[in-house]
Amino acid sequence: MRKVWSLFSWRSWGLIRYNSVWQNVAALFYVGLARQWSGLDYIRDVLLFLIFSLTGTAYGYLINDLADVELDRRAGKPNVFHGLRRGRAIGVTAIAFGVMVVCGLPFAARPDFLPLWIAWALTATFYSLPPVRLKERGAVGLVATILAQQPLPAALAFAALGYLCTWGALVFIAYITLRGISSDVGHQMRDRARDEVAGATTFAVRHGHTAIARLYGLSLEVETLLLGAVLIVLLVDAPPFVLGAWAVSPVWPLLIAYLALLPFTLGRAWMRLNRGEWIDPYDESPEGPPRDLLHLIHHPFPTVLLPLYLALWLTVLDWPNVVFVVGLGCYTGYTALGVGPQRGRCRNCAAGWGDARMDFDVVVIGAGPSGAAAAREIAQGGGRVALLERDAYPGQRAACGGGIEGADLELLGLPDSLIQRRITRREHHFPWGHTVIADPHVITLRQELDRWLAEESVAAGAELFTHTRVRVVKRLAAKRVEVTADDRATQQAVTYTARLAIFADGPHTLAPRAGKLGFTCTPATAALGLFYELAWPNTPMAHHEIHFAPAISPWGYLWIFPARDLLNVGLTVLPSSVNRTQTLEARLRAFIDSRFDLRDRPILRRAGGHIPVVPAARFYDDNMLVVGDAAGMVDALTDAGIANGVCGGRLAGQTACEALASGDYSAAFLARYQARWQASPRGQMTRFQSRLTRALLPVNRLDPYLYAKVMQILFLGRDLRRWQKLRLLAYPLIRSVLTPDTQR
Ligand SMILES: Cc1cc2nc3c(=O)[nH]c(=O)nc-3n(C[C@H](O)[C@H](O)[C@H](O)COP(=O)(O)OP(=O)(O)OC[C@H]3O[C@@H](n4cnc5c(N)ncnc54)[C@H](O)[C@@H]3O)c2cc1C
């Protein structure tokens, strides 16, 4: 029973939060008010329909996962049936369908309910089931998703209460349809890159980003307007409060709140998406955009505020309806506290039912370049190693320019297929002129690179667990560590035990919370990087550009890296070097807008993150090591960290193998890892660049050109004579500075 429950509590609970179920609840309350229904029959109908709606929605998702289980496995996408035998999966789907049928039967005799129900069941079933697979039929697939998720369930809600053929129901259904369009179009826009990789031919994949972004902007605007229409319907249809000689509609507060929000929201989505900016009020994921007024008007207003308000009003008219207020209130509080449906409590394991703990020699946290390199080294050395990755696949959310120096190619052993573009020239744009140098470089896409590195570690024998977000790492007695993670696909907790834990989880590492090791991210220890991927199919650009613009980034630079079909344009800034009047995004946009060849290109992706500029004080503790960004192994001046992470990962892997062989996991034994890194040329370079940064940063306030000067002298200084360097240091007092066009 627990297993069945955990299946139902996966996505279907997630659905409850902001899905058609709550819009339908608002519709049911509206019917109650408009008809002035009360009594236990009404309460029974609403509750029964709620269960019908929940199990029907769960069925829709289960049948979709059942049909896609193999496809999702290959694409690394979450699927509730991963690890479950096909027979059981069919059984679970059948249970959902059966419960829905039982709850729907009492409504079957009501006008229009049965044909609508059959239409919904067929659309939901053949949306993903072969041979029809509506979802792979471009625009038809999009229409089928929207129909099955929004207007049909809403029409069923009205038909269940015998209120379908009214103009109020029509306005509600129109609004809910638009919500469906926005939600699904946004979903396709968000998933476009991943669907392209998985080979799915969705509408967004077929028509490209610009088309889907326009459609999204338009649907968000119409949705906002239709919310107003719904409030007007309520104003007209619902009974007013009579206070003496006055009859006041209780809808007014809602309508006033809506009208107050309107000037700040109407037109914004369309304009911003048309400008090529990335906005997505339906993206509720932690990495999604900040929750602003657009989010408020599209989410909490219709799905929390509206049903709760209507329930209160129903209670005023007939007190037994208080059951709705209590139910909704408990649910809202429950999710707001963060203990609700979005996170399962059941302890289980990604590999199989009931297998709650897994034991390894080493657990590596994070499947970026450094984690994959460490895991590969350990697996090659014969250790049993788990590689845990929070995302659906390694590199899914990697924020990086993907630039790798030609000299590091051999070290990484990259196959040609991963190289998006080979660059031979680099242009430096200084405030005093520009230089071009010969500079072999390759551009990669981190989604592809990280995936490949992780596959290499799996080929060597490591076990990769995706969707596994580590929460806590604890040292146990008897020389062991315990790593507790959430399996984000099944929403269950998983515990791994091992002799060693290696933190390779990037700059926001959990290491300092687990022991005396690792990088701590603060404005003083990390730079900020932000980039846009701009569409440019078959870009002819064969060089990359580095721009030093103190007004935009006093300690940092802007870059343009050309990949095959896009440009990666970004900037880094050391937060302590700038005043905070301008956001990072505004700085990047100012640069892009200043370039006629960039300004009108659609933005395919926007991402950013912290870049360590100060190495961690300690890379080891009892039973623990830290590597890559999590150890601050980045060149502080150039912000390059991929190759450093791979080298650090290998050293950590070698040390782990030695520890496994000797059975000694003490800090004293593991200290050799840090000593080796610091003695290596890369370790010395990161330390040198970090020290120089810290020493020069205070002077940067007096001379905003200092960073550009240091970069030219350090990396292009070979082409300058001593007196030329002195003249350069005196800029802008001496303005004639040499910037030789050098071809090395
Ligand atoms: C904007 C920007 C541009 C950059 N450009 C370049 C460049 O062009 N060239 C270059 O060499 N370097 C570049 N860097 C630096 C480079 O990206 C990093 O140094 C490099 O990614 C470090 O690799 P890593 O494996 O240590 O960490 P990451 O790449 O950050 O990998 C960490 C992994 O751990 C996972 N993870 C995190 N927390 C958890 C958890 N709790 N549980 C499970 N998994 C978790 C993450 O999902 C991720 O996959 C750039 C950085 C930024 C921010």
How would you sum up this structure, described in words?
- The chain is an alpha/beta fold and 744 residues long.
- It is built from 25 helices and 20 strands.
- Helix 2 (11-17) packs across helix 4.
- The longest helix has 36 residues, at 40-75.
- The radius of gyration is 29 Å and the shape is globular.
- The protein binds flavin-adenine dinucleotide (FAD).
- Flavin-adenine dinucleotide binds at residues 365-371, 388-391, 394, 398-403, 468-470, 504-506, 510, 529, 531, 570, 608-609, 611, 628-630, 634, 639-642, 645.
- The site of flavin-adenine dinucleotide has 40 residues, from helix 16, strand 10, strand 14, strand 18 and helix 21.
Question: Which labels suit this protein?
Answer:
744 residues, alpha/beta, FAD/NAD(P)-binding domain, D-Amino Acid Oxidase, Chain A, domain 2, 8-stranded mixed sheet, 25 helices, globular, binds flavin-adenine dinucleotide
SSE order and pairing:
Layout: H1 2-8, H2 11-17, H3 20-35, H4 40-75, H5 86-104, H6 113-126, H7 138-149, H8 151-160, H9 167-198, H10 203-237, E1 241-243, E2 246-248, H11 252-265, H12 268-274, H13 293-298, H14 300-317, H15 322-336, E3 357-359, E4 362-365, H16 369-380, E5 385-388, E6 403-405, H17 409-412, E7 421-430, E8 433-443, H18 446-460, E9 463-465, E10 468-476, E11 480-487, E12 492-498, E13 500-503, H19 511-514, E14 526-535, E15 543-547, E16 558-562, E17 566-573, H20 584-593, E18 603-612, E19 620-621, E20 624-626, H21 642-662, H22 667-679, H23 681-700, H24 706-716, H25 722-729
Parallel strand pairs: 3-12, 4-5, 4-13, 5-9, 7-15, 13-20
Antiparallel strand pairs: 1-2, 6-8, 7-8, 10-11, 11-12, 14-17, 14-18, 15-16, 16-17, 19-20
Bound molecules: flavin-adenine dinucleotide.
Flavin-adenine dinucleotide binds at residues 365-371, 388-391, 394, 398-403, 468-470, 504-506, 510, 529, 531, 570, 608-609, 611, 628-630, 634, 639-642, 645.
